[in-house]
Amino acid sequence: MSRIEMVDLDVEDQEIQNMFHAVTQMLGRVPNSYRTLAKSPLVAKMLVPFNATIQREGAGSVLSAKLKEMVVIKTSHINQCNY
After folding, report:
1. Which domain holds residue 51?
2. Which of 20, 51, 57, 81 is deepest in the core (most CB within 10 A)?
3. Is residue 21 domain-resident?
4. CB neighbour class for 17 (10 Å; exposed up to 12, middle 13-18, buried from 19)
């Protein structure tokens, strides 16, 4: 059970549905972090393009997607998180 309740994927709010759709296109699914962020749609709406730039190749980023994924895995390992 999470400490902060997540927003259901079938929420009726159109702004949140648009954000879920964009995240699904970018990541192939809606991670729990975005379902939690949907509690604050303005913050979530600003985070999606930022996250796209940070995690994907292109969009102004100079690092490869492979290197970015290696950083995520190493950070998860150091913090003893399951990834």
Report:
1. 14-78
2. 20
3. yes
4. middle
Tokens representing 2 are 């999470």
Closest to 60 in 3D by CA, of 75, 50, 69, 70: 50
Q: pTM of the full predicted structure?
A: 0.65
The count of structural domains within the chain is 1
Task: Locate 52 and state its tokens.
Answer: 């796209």
Say if 8 falls within a structural domain. no
**Domain-embedded: residue 2:** no
pLDDT in tens, the chain (83 residues): 557 888 889 889 888 898 899 888 878 888 888 899 898 888 888 888 887 777 767 666 777 878 878 888 899 889 888 75
